From TrEMBL:
Any Pfam family the entry gives: Cas3_HD
PANTHER family in alphabetical order: CRISPR-ASSOCIATED ENDONUCLEASE_HELICASE CAS3, DEAD-BOX ATP-DEPENDENT RNA HELICASE 47, MITOCHONDRIAL
Protein name, UniProt field: CRISPR-associated helicase/endonuclease Cas3
Source domain of life: Bacteria
SUPFAM superfamilies, A to Z: P-loop containing nucleoside triphosphate hydrolases
GO biological process: defense response to virus
InterPro entries (UniProt xref): Cas3-like_dom (IPR054712), CRISPR-assoc_Cas3_HD (IPR006483), CRISPR-assoc_Cas3_HD_sf (IPR038257), DEAD/DEAH_box_helicase_dom (IPR011545), DEAD_box_RNA_helicases (IPR050547), Helicase_ATP-bd (IPR014001), Helicase_C-like (IPR001650), Helicase_Cas3_CRISPR-ass_core (IPR006474)
Organism ancestry: Bacteria, Pseudomonadati, Pseudomonadota, Alphaproteobacteria, Rhodobacterales
Record keywords: Antiviral defense, ATP-binding, Endonuclease, Helicase, Hydrolase, Metal-binding, Nuclease, Nucleotide-binding
GO molecular function, one term: RNA helicase activity
Similarity comment: family membership: In the central section; belongs to the CRISPR-associated helicase Cas3 family. In the N-terminal section; belongs to the CRISPR-associated nuclease Cas3-HD family.
Length: 811
């Protein structure tokens, strides 16, 4: 317990608490395992007896029973102490649900619980008295009742859990013989804690002085380097067109926030694992300019498969500025948010506002960070939008600052997000840099870099016409892409192009991970920022293209989609004009060819299906119709000055009414959105209720970070002789157990579709021989699927390296 208290002293020191309050919190954290001083815990250790109440629940009961002693020491009112008792006792990821009554030990239920403590009741009081003497100045006097105490109740469990993790590690705190005086032991524990916190990667990194970058700044970047920062927590919203350098602008602003003491680290929250992986590479190169030798982690479900993350140096003394990691931080995805700099999915951050186990640990990890949320427009769906609002509210309550990046944020959503930091909605100017409670920058210097100018919009009536256009443009040497709304439509489009003699590539989310990474690498090598051999390259892709890859095409066809998605897609058209100026392009101007029915001719609610097929069901038909109406009327996309008008014409208060034939579909979509918002409000933690009443410690799957069609994960295998091997080539030297190879062989698809198919019997001997060696989480959550030489998995399903997972008609 003293080891953990000593670690807590190190962890809490940078947060700037008033000394007496700081010591009070450390004292309570040191007492976190008081419930182990009980007959029931000793019986469990000695002979395996089952405990009626877990030791941390007994800790809270003992705090209640000895409140007279603790209250005399700490002060504060009953509600404050009860909130902090629950916070410390709940360090295993969830609060106690015992009914303990009032402080002071008068409750019959409390007496019932204390019977499990037995002879430990008096010794527990002796420990409280002895520890109180070690932190003699501890007091809650400076802690304001009400909101301040409630906010602290969410923060302290994460502090305690982190301190417990480190302080319980016998590498840093080995057991010792004898019975040293407690003061002497604490002195030794404090010395060990300094080493432990540093070696775990939690000691923090100094902020670097000076400028973030040495290149000539673009307009938004220059604004971020100069904008005034108000006192206290800050929320900034950066709105600018795709390719304007918003990431670098955010890093400049985050560096200035860190220099102003508004954060001691960063967390980059991205919409997908693919975007997080891409950002990790960029962050690895940049964060050393912000912090000296920062600890860097990757936070998402497949982080262990990232070669750049695995290759990050660990252990030993890091370089002067280069980021590194530690083995301790890499051991758990939950620990990733404790590093100086984390890059991951927004889901990892959103779990801090859902009542799941260790939610408070994530909140504690984020509380010291400047939270950078990229592609915020991707989070406008009602459920995740409410989560993001609550995340910002909780982050601000803990003193945290945040930066939001977007190209296509509707004004209504921007207003709700800014309101979390108390900012009234500013005007509609675009581009814009808005600092809540501070200045708004809407006047920017001209960008001296070459620009592509307006993107002309041209409507195409049929998929056949789109395919013919791609063939003709590729023959002229253009790098071409067709962005489709649905995977099945993308597969069909590639088939059409290949029938026309074009060796088109295909990229979508239904490839096994190793195949997807291989295809992405090839696409980046051909049409990425530094791509070569572009002439005649043709790609068909789904929405994975919108945010995860920095690509540059000469010609683009896109299925009609909501305006924000179309703007994002058009951002990959004539993208890098400094490297490929107009004169070098094989086509005279950038044109977005949109496959769409005529929005002026809507005769029934199947307006989209005849043109798009299955892709017609991906988005709200009302949003798609308004987007078509507005875009074709404008005839062009002018960035950045014309983007706000396009977005608001679709999503703003003055948006045009849909035709009568689409009203019912819009009403159904609005009802579904309202239901999603209601579900979010039901699922999110109630910050005002405090941790004891609103934390639940549920399983992650009970409270999803996103809504959407449920998927199942297939693990593909190939037959090698009489045995099954992972679909992804194994690496015996670095992965002798094939764990990575099986992970790289996974592919997810619609559960609704898969459940209709006769998937391979998992009890068959050849499959059971593999799955019985897997960890329980993998064998329970996946289906092993051998793939025949012709690609067949079962009737109605096949897989190919060039087409991915394909659903085929069944006889």
């Amino acid at each position: 317990m003293l080891d953990v208290g000593a670690v807590a002293e190190r962890l809490i020191a940078p947060f700037g608490f008033e000394p007496a309050l700081r010591d009070a919190l450390v004292l309570l954290v040191a007492l976190h395992d008081l419930g182990k001083i009980s007959d029931s815990f000793r019986a469990m250790i000695e002979n395996g007896s089952r405990q009626t109440y877990r030791h941390w629940e007994l800790s809270e009961a003992l705090f209640f029973a000895h409140d007279a002693l603790l209250g005399a020491k700490l002060g504060g009112d009953d509600l404050q102490r009860a909130a902090l008792y629950a916070a410390v006792a709940g360090h295993h990821g969830q609060p106690s649900d015992l009914v303990l009554g009032d402080l002071g030990g008068s409750s019959r239920d409390l007496r019932k619980v204390l019977r499990q403590v037995g002879s430990g009741l008096e010794p527990a009081g002796e420990v409280i008295a002895a520890f109180s003497a070690l932190w003699s100045g501890a007091s809650l006097q400076s802690l304001a009742p009400g909101a301040a105490t409630t906010a602290l109740s969410w923060w302290v469990p994460g502090l305690c859990a982190t301190a417990d993790w480190v302080g319980s590690n016998t590498t840093w705190f080995p057991p010792r013989a004898g019975q040293p005086r407690l003061a002497d032991y604490l002195a030794e524990a404090r010395a060990a804690a300094g080493r432990a916190v540093a070696e775990a990667g939690l000691a923090g990194s100094p902020v670097q002085p000076g400028a973030t970058f040495d290149f000539a700044l673009r307009p938004m970047q220059a604004a971020c380097a100069l904008v005034a920062l108000p006192d206290g927590p800050v929320l900034a919203v950066i709105e600018d067109e795709t390719g304007a350098g918003k990431t670098e602008a955010a890093l400049i602003l985050a560096h200035r926030m860190a220099q102003a003491g508004k954060g001691r680290g960063l967390y980059f929250a991205l919409p997908t694992m693919a975007t997080a992986d891409a950002m990790f590479g960029r962050a690895s190169e940049a964060v050393g300019r912000i912090f000296a030798a920062p600890r860097l982690t990757l936070a998402h479900g497949r982080a262990a498969l990232s070669v750049p993350f695995r290759d990050l140096p660990t252990g030993g003394a890091p370089g002067e500025d280069a980021p590194s990691c530690t083995d301790w931080l890499k051991q758990s995805r939950r620990r990733a948010l404790l590093a100086d700099v984390g890059v991951g999915t927004v889901d990892q951050a959103l779990l801090s506002v859902l009542p799941v186990k260790h939610q408070t640990l994530r909140h504690f990890g984020l509380s010291s960070k400047i939270l950078i949320v990229d592609e915020v427009h991707e989070m406008g769906e009602p459920y995740i939008g409410k989560e993001l609002e609550r995340l910002l509210q909780m982050h601000r309550a803990a003193g945290g600052s945040a930066i939001l990046l977007t190209a296509t944020l509707p004004l209504d959503l921007r207003a709700r997000l800014l309101a979390t930091y108390g900012e009234a909605n500013p005007g509609p100017a675009y581009p814009a840099l808005t600092v809540a409670g501070g200045a708004s920058v809407t006047g920017f210097a001209a960008d001296t870099r070459p620009v592509k100018g307006p993107v002309q919009v041209d409507r195409i009536d049929s998929a056949e016409a789109a395919a013919d256009l791609m063939v003709a443009q590729a023959a002229q040497g253009a790098a071409c892409v067709w962005v489709r709304n649905g995977v099945d439509d993308a597969i069909a489009a590639v088939g059409m192009l290949r029938e026309r003699g074009v060796a088109a590539r295909l990229l979508h989310a239904r490839f096994a991970l190793n195949d997807r990474k291989r295809i992405e690498a090839e696409v980046l090598a051909r049409v990425g920022k530094d791509g070569v051999d572009r002439a005649g390259f043709v790609l068909v892709a789904t929405q994975v293209l919108e945010a995860s890859l920095d690509l540059d095409f000469d010609v683009m066809v896109s299925d009609i989609a909501p305006i924000a998605a179309l703007i994002q897609r058009a951002g990959r058209l004539w993208r890098h004009m400094d490297r490929r100026p107009a004169a070098t392009r094989p086509v005279p101007a950038p044109v977005l060819h949109v496959l769409s029915p005529d929005p002026a001719k809507v005769t029934d609610d199947r307006w989209l299906q005849g043109t798009l097929g299955s892709g017609a069901w991906v988005y709200s038909v009302a949003d798609v119709w308004r987007s078509a109406r507005v875009l074709f009327a404008a005839g062009r996309i002018e960035a950045p000055q014309g983007l706000r008008a396009l977005i608001e014409a679709v999503h703003g208060a003055g948006a045009e009414d849909v035709p009568e034939a689409l009203v019912r579909a819009e009403m159904e979509a609005l009802g579904k959105a309202a239901g999603a918002r209601t579900l979010a409000l039901h699922n999110l933690v109630d910050l005002s209720a405090g941790y004891r009443d609103a934390g639940r410690g549920a399983d992650d799957v009970a409270y999803p970070t996103r809504l959407g069609e449920e998927t199942r994960v297939l693990v593909l295998a190939r037959r090698v002789g009489a045995a099954l091997h992972p679909w992804a080539p194994p690496d015996p030297a670095n992965d002798p157990g094939w764990s990575d190879a099986w992970a790289f062989s996974e592919v997810a698809a619609s559960r609704r579709k898969l459940d209709r198919l006769p998937l391979p019997d998992q009890s068959s001997p050849e499959i059971a021989a593999i799955t019985r060696l897997w960890p329980e989480w993998r064998s329970a959550g996946t289906i092993l699927c051998p793939v025949a030489e012709d690609g067949t998995i079962c009737e109605g399903l096949r897989y190919g390296t060039d087409c991915g997972l394909v659903f085929t008609p069944r006889a």
